[in-house]
Design a protein that fits this description.
heterodimer; A: alpha/beta; Rossmann fold; 5-stranded parallel β-sheet; 7 helices; 9 strands; disordered N terminus; B: mainly alpha; MetI-like fold; 75% helix
Amino acid sequence: MSNSLSLSNIAAATAQGLVISQLEVYLEQYRLFYDLNIVEGECLAIQGRSGVGKTTLLQTIAGFERAKSGAIYWQGQNILQLAPHERPVSMLFQEHNLFEHLSVIKNLSLGFADVLPKEQLIKAAERLGVYGQLNKMPAELSGGQRQRIGLIRTLLRPEPIILLDEPFAELDSDTRQIAAEWTREVAQQQGKTLLVVTHQDEDVERLADRCLVLGD
Amino acid sequence: MFSRFPVISILAYAVVISITAMAFYGLIGFDQARLMPELLQDQYIQQILRFSLLQAAASAVLSVMLALPIARALHFMPELPARKAFLRFCLLCFVMPTLVLITGLVALLGRSGLMTGFMPNDWNLYGLNGILIAHLYLNMPLAVRVISQQLAHIPDTSWRLAQQLKLSRTQQFLKVEWPALKSSLLMLLGFVFVLCFNSFAVVLALGGGPGATTLEVAIFQALKYDFNLSEALTLSWLQFTIAGLIFALIAKLGKLNWLSADTHKQRWQPEFGQYSQRVHQGLYLLAWLLLALPIVALIPTLFKAQLKHLDFTLLFLACVRTIVIASTCALFATLLAWWLLIPIRQAQLRKNESGRIILQWLATHSLVAPAMVMSAGLYILLLPRVDLERWGWFWLILINTVLLLPFVIAQLKPRLLQYDQQYWRLSANLKLSGLGQLHTIWPFIRPAMLGSFVLALLLAMGDVAVFSIFGDNSWSTLPWLIYGYAGSYRMAEAALASLLLLALCTLLIVLFERKRLYEQ
């Protein structure tokens, strides 16, 4: 990793929000390169053809993929060297967002270190139409219901950066709209910085302040 | 989180490695014992080595080959009668105390055995025949369980897709079953090979002469009859090296395959054709018969027992001691395995393949270290330093615990690696505390933990080898009592004690399976 004191590095380190600076990630032999800024509280939609590196970008920010060089600054601090559990990030994966052996309500309560926002969780479950599923096991839920449970927990966790990897992929158009609007509201109310990978233009319109198409 | 190994894991590795190191140090330190490479030129030793390899290879190949169709029958024909009972019975056969099996085999196929009349004129149980039969009996059921478990991991979607693509039954086997089974079969072959290569009690009882002796028995003879420590040491290293290399290969092959997420429950799978169904039904029936016969053969011997002279208090106390000692060993082995697995899981997550193999080898090397050498080496080292009459029980538990580790780790590891594969990212992302992690992993791992504990308990209940060195007649366990009865030709009493030990093992298996089904 380069530690040179270039002007661009200094600028990135002093900028507020999320700065992804000259980030180089290798998947097998394939090189991926990222360089972008996201203002604090902004919602950025990420699009691009399959395999271009959208998920890899989110996984690298969350700490699950290693970067070869570059930096990721959050509020001026480089978080690239931090372990996943030390990063100010809450992420919704494409799959495996729920522990299959724990009930839905137990799954929903995980990841809140201090106080559980019980009221908010219940309100969100009602709004997204999954309140009736809380006492079930994940295996009893449909793909869309599981996705909404994961989404509620990801959004309401006390982390400033929210990464959503195709969060509405399994939802019908009505539920998709409700979920997207709820996501936008919560993110705005709580000042979250949002990165959303999506293939749907309607998600971009409903949710995002800006859209980045990777690979162009 | 994964930057360093926990202290408790480092201590666990230190304990496991020190036991083996101390055992070898005990042998080397005594009477200037030295390695004798010239022994490898000796024709007698070469013959023993050849036989050890041959019988182990034959036992492994036959066990796995015979297990495959039976496991497939169990998997694809869930309507088979007493299918669950058969799987329980398989577990009982694998953990069956060797002395019980040998008593049953002699009653069935020995010189005046129940079935000997149906065998060819030149039939002799002693030698390669008997050794192969006993090894098949002990290991084929293990292979049946492992293969049927592996088949159950094939996701439902694969079968549906295969059907939708109109693949023939052969194509389904080649494209769906074989990729799921391939690595398990290789691992099984290696595992059974190592178990049979290190086999002691079976070969001691059913082997005969240099033509049917293994390295482990030769080590025992060098220690017990010739008191030639240099020879024992050289043979031990030879065995350690060969079994160790094979075991390292198993560790390399032992990858996490086909462990699908728990959401993929099998609700649909193909059926056999009519002809195939009949063949598999026949094989299933034959397997029941072959596995049940040695136990049934013990019953007529019972009628010869003179119950008036039997000391029931002795029998009862032996039962209690067996359970207490075995439970303690099983508990320690399960805890130790958990701690030993932490660094292995960390290496797997970091994709540090060589690190994982080395750690796994260190954690489970007691599978390849000759049990006789471990016990005898430690005994020689400790005798002048420790009051073994007083502390023998401690070393008995410690050595048995270490010897159980490979089996416990083999049970626990796949489930823990599956957890990591499925949930590590989620768990890290949720920033769960130590207690929080325990709360999430425990419900997932509990059935595997219970299974490992019961397996260890059953295996420890059959121990004779370590007891023969560190035990004491004043606190005999049940297997030691059987050994004593058989040694003084009181076969009826030996059969009675054997059936009692078997009944205890069966009870434990039934309780365990019930608990498992209840939790499901």
